[in-house]
Amino acid sequence: MKTKLVVLFILFVMGLQAQDKKAYQLFDKNGKKVSYTKLLKASLQTQVVLFGEYHNNSVAHWLQLELTKDVAAQTKVVLGAEMIEADNQKQLNQYLKGEIDQIKLDSTARLWKNHPTDYKPLVDFAKENNFDFIATNIPRRYASMVSKKGFEVLETLSSEEKSWIAPQPIPYDASLPGYVEMMKMMGDHTSPNMPKAQASKDATMAYFINRNLKTNSVFIHYNGTFHSDNFDGINWYLKTYNSSIEIITIATVEQKDITKLEKENCNKANFILVIDEDVTKTY
Known about the structure:
By secondary structure, the protein is an alpha/beta fold. Helices cover 43% and strands 18% of the residues. It has eleven helices and eight strands. It has an eight-stranded mixed sheet. β1 and β2 form a beta hairpin. α4 runs antiparallel to α5 (102-108), α7 runs antiparallel to α10 (193-211) and α9 packs antiparallel against α10 (193-211). The N and C termini lie far apart (55 Å). Residues 5-17 have low confidence and may be disordered.
């Protein structure tokens, strides 16, 4: 009788586990499962958190907001994002101060189409708590110019336009994994200037992050995961501009099985956020 009860209990527990569907799992760079608590602790002990996202992944956006709230509950923060370009900082500041409303911000800044669902909650959190929110990205028209004519074209810009971009000449290493991968992906349809356009974004984001660091605070930056995967991109430029800076990176990947990290996703970041590939997309 006792044996039968034990067997029934085991089957009951297994049944509960089978019903316990998780949307995500965190891993360290070596593929070991880690807890959210460990991620939070690491975020509180660094100067910069680069949170790499898939732009349309609802779980990634949810966790960005949750991590931001939890870090802000224990220390000062500065927030920043790829999704708002540097020449829109004035309008963003006006919104944060309550000088313009969302409708005015929408009409004066080049907000992404998923801003209302995915980035507005982060901006509004900054607004409600009087946190700085930095528009870190190069205006896209200048990145487009670089993709066609190289870094040299930036020298033709006015002083005001140059103030929205990392200082020239922009350092560049074509052998960084992200830029090499971009060249491979584009194949015959690319030129050496394509990864330079990406680098102009990475450099500008790093420049504005570094320029807006505050003592005893954490800068949390939201960017496409490709911009900080493999510890290059923004991470590389931050180290170039400030060799002593402390950074942790978070990469986002999607897998069918989230219980173990696929080999090709190891070493992408300090923490890898693995999300079920069936999770709802925001667009």
